[in-house]
Specification:
InterPro entries: GATase_2_dom, Ntn_hydrolases_N, PRTase-like, PRTase_dom, PurF, PurF_N. By secondary structure, the protein is α+β, with helices and mostly antiparallel strands. The chain is built from 18 helices and 27 strands. It has 2 domains: 244 residues, Glutamine Phosphoribosylpyrophosphate, subunit 1, domain 1 (4-Layer Sandwich), CATH 3.60.20.10; 170 residues, Rossmann fold. The strands form 8 sheets. A 7-stranded antiparallel β-sheet has the order 4-3-5-2-11-10-12. A 6-stranded antiparallel β-sheet has the order 6-7-8-9-13-14. A 4-stranded parallel β-sheet has the order 18-22-23-24, sandwiched between helices. It binds 1-O-pyrophosphono-5-O-phosphono-alpha-D-ribofuranose, glutamine (GLN) and magnesium ion. The site of glutamine has 17 residues, from β7.
Length: 486
């Protein structure tokens, strides 16, 4: 399966539109601006007066819809679509969404999911006992199977009961012949927004950059525990639970989301600049120039430069045509991947003391490569500043880091990492600094953010992942004061 070799893999992206001619084309356009959230595969289901049409495939959206006729054959005035990066199940086309289900009452429905369920294994076992045979291997299908086998009356009641049975991270878009439905988990781990087209049609998607792309205006964020039902009569806001506790994934602000998106009223680019500014304030260093690691740390590097007064320059470029190769997750492949995508502008770095700002260190591959490259280009010293705290703990809510084995900061102290990446100094943003930089989302614990990857404070029980997590903790032996919430 082709995919870019990346340090961190994104989330999935959702886009849906109800009541607009050209629905499939607009869904394509919206998904195009969400491509950063998933590059493994893409799919669109359209709805022409109750008749569903689907096209899906592996690879980038443009590869899946290479033949322009394909999109024109997705007839109808409503559609939902998905770009995938897997967190569960295999990488085959059967796991590419939206998935389709037949249903006694509504006939057929389509489903797309962003996130990761923490009790998927348990639910799969329960459904298997009921005689369900599965169409795919990821966790996303399970909600559809729960709905179709529910004892409740009516699609919405079945959906509400099913949403209360699953745990973890989930933003869903569903479509029946007569409605589009969005739902968000009780912690609101993933962003999900509602917008309106100029003629009144409703759009629901992962990030506001997709609203901008199709010319929709922002209406509201989907709140934790809500289900939003869109029909030809308009939009109804309902909920499947009121027992909610906002814990939005802080990595959305740090890395995943596009900088031109606004999540819960906070500009991603501005939040990243504040992260850069705060890491500068927390860990100042004398230098001649600030460089960012393209792409995702450029906002933070600008913030570092503004706060420190050290000029920012473009000392590094990213090849726009990055080789897309078969991933075999070997370190040799990763090293080659980084070397093919990042290079140095020698005139900017030669003879200089450099502050190198990146948004995160996962395995350390990128930092190590770049420090070497900068020194080879004549840099006098390279001080690495990371605009987020050290990534030490797994994520079970939708980021594909379910083990700490490869996390350099889980297995090494900061001075050890500094030595390994051959930097002259290394510092990370503190967790309070991160929270302050993003801003107070609300007055809930942790200001409405999930920071579990940095401090091990999980806002929910971990269910099927608890035993694996306990084993990680025992292995790491560095876990103090962390807990799994309830
Ligand atoms: O320590 P590592 O394992 O190398 O991972 C960390 C790097 O991965 C991410 O970038 P990515 O390469 O995904 O590209 P992007 O910044 O252009 O999105 C992140 O922004 C860091 O640069
Ligand atoms: N990144 C995601 O949101 C993944 C969704 C789902 N768990 C899958 O693996 O397909
Ligand atoms: Mg990067």
């Amino acid at each position: 399966m082709p995919a870019e070799i990346k340090g961190l893999n994104e989330e999935c992206g959702l886009f849906g539109i109800w009541g607009e001619a050209n629905a499939a084309q607009l869904t394509y356009d919206g998904l195009h601006s969400l491509q950063h959230r998933g590059q493994e595969g893409a799919g669109i289901v359209s709805n022409d007066q109750g008749q569903f049409y689907r096209h899906r495939g592996l690879g980038l959206l443009a590869e899946v819809f290479r033949d322009s006729e394909t999109i024109h054959q997705l007839y109808g005035t409503s559609a939902i679509g998905h770009v995938r990066y897997a967190t569960a199940g295999n990488h085959g086309v059967e796991n590419i969404q939206p998935m389709l289900f037949s249903h006694d009452e509504v006939g057929e429905f389509a489903l797309a999911h962003n996130g990761n369920l923490t009790n998927a294994d348990t639910i799969r076992g329960e459904l298997r006992e009921k005689g369900v045979t599965f169409q795919a291997t990821s966790d996303s299908e399970l909600l559809g199977e729960l709905v179709t086998t529910s004892d409740e009356d009516g699609f919405i009641n079945q959906l509400k009961a099913s949403l209360n049975h699953i745990h973890g991270g989930f933003a869903y878009l569903l479509m029946t012949p007569h409605m589009m439905v969005a739902a968000l988990d009780p912690n609101g781990f993933r962003p999900l927004v509602v917008g309106k087209m100029p003629d009144g049609a409703t759009v629901i998607c992962s990030e506001t950059c997709a609203l901008d792309q199709v010319g929709a205006s922002f209406v509201r964020d989907v709140e934790p525990g809500e289900i939003i039902i869109v029909t030809d009569e308009g939009m109804k806001i309902d909920h499947f639970t009121t027992d909610t506790h906002l814990a939005l994934c802080s990595m959305e602000y740090i890395y995943f989301a596009r900088p031109d998106s606004i999540i819960r009223g906070i500009s991603v680019h501005e939040a990243r600049k504040r992260m850069g500014a705060l890491v500068a304030r927390e860990n100042p260093v004398k230098a001649d120039v600030v460089l960012g690691v393209p792409n995702s740390s450029l906002s933070a590097a600008i913030g570092y430069a503004q706060e420190s007064g050290i000029p920012y320059d473009m000392g590094m470029i990213k090849n726009q045509y990055v080789a897309r190769t078969f991933i075999e997750p070997t370190q040799a492949k990763r090293d080659r991947g980084v070397s093919m995508k990042l290079s140095v502008v020698k005139s900017v770095v030669a003879g200089k003391d450099i502050v190198l700002v990146d948004d995160s260190i996962v395995r350390g591959t990128t930092s190590k490569y770049i420090v070497r490259l900068l020194k080879k280009a004549g840099a006098k010293s390279v001080h690495v500043r990371i605009a987020s705290p050290a990534l030490k703990f797994p994520c079970y809510y939708g980021i594909d880091i379910q083990t700490t084995k490869e996390l350099i900061a889980a297995n090494n102290t900061i001075p050890e990492i500094c030595t390994q990446i051959e930097a002259d100094s290394l510092a990370f943003l503190s967790v309070p600094g991160l929270i302050k930089a993003i801003g107070d989302l609300n007055d809930a614990d942790n200001h409405g953010l999930c920071t579990a990857y940095f401090d091990g404070n999980y806002p929910t029980p971990l269910y099927d992942y608890q035993a694996g997590f306990d084993a990680e903790v025992a292995r790491l032996g560095l876990y103090e004061g962390a807990n799994t919430g309830d």
